[in-house]
Amino acid sequence: MKKLIEGSMAVAESVKRCRPNVVAAYPITPQTHIVENLAQMVADGELKAEFVNTESEFGAASVVLGASAAGARAYSTTTSQGLLLMAEVLYNIAGMRLPVVITCANRAISAPINIWNDHSDAMVIRDSGIIMLFAEDAQELFDMHPQAFKIAENPDIMLPFMVNMDGFILTHAFESVELSDQKLFDEFLPKFNPALKLDPANPITMGTLAEPKWYMETRYKLHETQQEALPLIQKTAEEFKAKFGRWYGGLIDTYRLDDAEIGFVAMGSLIGTLKEVVDDLRAKGEKVGVLKIRSYRPFPKKEILDVCKGLKQLVVFDKSFSYGWGSILQNEMRNCFYGSKHNPMISGFVVGLGGRDIPPSSIIKAYQQTKGKEILDEFVDVNWELVGVRR
Amino acid sequence: MSKPILLFAQPGSSKVNKTGSWRTMMPVFKHKDCTDCRICVTVCPDACVSGKDKIYNANLDYCKGCGVCAYECPVNDIDMVLEVK
Amino acid sequence: MADTIRPKKEKAAVEESLFTSGHRACAGCGEALGAKLVMDAAGPDTIVATSTGCLEVFSTPYPESAWRMPWIHSLFENSSAVASGVEVALKALGRKGNTKIIAQGGDGGTADIGIGCLSGMLERGHEILYVCYDNEAYMNTGVQRSGLTPFDAHTTTSPSGKISFGNQRPKKTLLDIAAAHNIPYAATASVAYPADLQRKVKKALATPGPTFIHLHVPCPLGWGYKAELTLEIARIAIDTGLFPLVEIEWGKVTRVRKITKDKKPVEEYLKPQSRFRHLFASEDGKKELAKIQAIADANIAKYGLV
Lengths: 391, 85, 306
Ligand SMILES: Cc1ncc(C[n+]2csc(CCOP(=O)(O)OP(=O)(O)O)c2C)c(N)n1
Ligand SMILES: [Mg+2]
What we know:
The complex is a heterotrimer. Chain A is α/β, with parallel strands linked by helices. Chain A has 13 helices and 18 strands. Chain A has 2 domains: 243 residues, Thiamin diphosphate (ThDP)-binding fold, Pyr/PP domains (Rossmann fold), CATH 3.40.50.970; 138 residues, Rossmann fold. In chain A, helix 1 crosses helix 2, helix 1 runs parallel beside helix 6 and helix 6 packs across helix 8. The termini of chain A are far apart. In chain A, 54% of the residues are buried. Chain B is α+β, with helices and mostly antiparallel strands.
């Protein structure tokens, strides 16, 4: 059944169909509609789950940690300041190998306080061991959650999973979404039944202290498992397509990239804008295409190299920045190609920080500036007068 | 695919760690005036005193020699002595 | 009152303690004794969440664990929230049955950094017993001051010095804070009286809803006394009125341990402990002793201990 609904509702409808046993969260704009919708579903008896209103995001993450350790399917959602408050727990959840799923309604980080979209929050926990995928639109969000639980709970993976969605742009926009049946979800997503859990019948100890003799192996295993998740993410997207008939890419996706000379790279909802721009430029004879990074952690290096073989140049549009170093996605892309036989020029533009509008015209302007010329860490649409820079 | 290292520990596995080696003073249970009150069993922070019928002893594999049992014994039936190793 | 120390005879003789030997607590550790007594009172059908701190570090260096019930450690400040998650999970999965849940942590993990999560747990009404093991400082990191460090105690971050008598704030009123959540049961307890402690644990676990026990656990190393004196020091803390034994049900004090016969001046408590040594080294120290006596007297008056 197709329905015109808000992105947050698409997430809630999907999470409901994943049948979590425990939902714990704390409200923060622009994530609020997701928790409100889930709370209503529980209140109406549509979702049979324990809904826990915590005193903070730190508490919410800790509650889902405990619930997951006890063998429950557990879900939470947050953004920005809330994600940072969760950070200590999320590292812990990853280290303890608990397959919690959280949705992050990506938002800028204070100060100055700003409730609008960028990807700075997600970057704070990118090194935690959590799996991170970015969705492009409401339908992909609806479809990504069952995949998230399935991948996270795979006995060989057992890692937390963060579904990223652009705050406001996706959380608050209304889109037509195919709300697939519960039955399909139940067939696709097996019940969660971890081999080891907190259970008086088998009283194991979880969360031990690891002295130097043991710690490094656990960290190596995190990386190894992230690598093992690569084929599984791809395979799960394919399984999803076979059952539900929808496809948004596996680890990556491409749009008109096959015969392109220049590829635009981004994550999340910006992909939609880039596709429009590509259509426009193509109409004018420019050979451009789009590379969508769907899986950010694990980072699909091999797949990226494969699809970029014919490209002369990549232009990265990044919604995050590492102050004192540079645009994060741009630098990861550049790192990706270092030492490979094929070495396209890679440019990077920083766009949309704190919800700054990203009109197609700005993308086109950036493209015209950088075509055939390397430009790095370039902030787009900045009021240079305001920052006291003469250009 | 290899199984992840989860760092789960088995219940009660601390018993491999013989903390008795830390000891300098050793409890000697005299078995003379014991009234079977079991206070020595109850108050041992290392859960290493056990027995029944007025015969109690510390498991010297684990006893750290803190002396709490001797101090608390209401009839002074436990002596702390310097251990000769 | 020696009788309160005596457990039932038939019990414990052959059974191995649920908090077992081989852990790495210091000799005479009050916290280890406290944990043993709490666990054995709770029984094996109990899931335990523990905060970072001495108790966690000395009991679970991988691959060893002293715990014989299902046990989890996550972080320093979240054992109450982790336990909340465990509780709702068991309920959602239909596995709750008679399984009991305990969250626990040190004075720092409870009264300072973990107080937000604790308040959330108490307010939400989870069926969990929270036990705070109060050794009156951050012992695991080397005896730093916490909100439960007593007035004038020397710690490494509230040192006594040429112009200071050490920690200048009284203990946070943790029991009152917990009880103010209007929970069915909140109590103080002490390793000095194991049977009383175990009765309180059982009572708390048999009471529906969130319950709280503030457990006094002397620390030979951090407080500076001979290891054999752990129970003795704990007893004198009670007998001076510095650590009153109190039970509160739905906000009302329902039971206290009277000290009418045993009442002692605070000097008897302070003298054997090196953390209070500086109070006996100068004339000005006498004024400080009077202040500490006033704290004890206020407790005695508040709870009618004599
Ligand atoms: C967020 C955080 N801050 C600080 C620490 C360092 N730390 C670990 S245990 C501890 C002190 C524990 O004190 P307490 O809770 O009183 O328990 P105790 O060790 O005294 O039993 C501290 C400060 C930490 N692990 N995590
Ligand atoms: Mg402490």
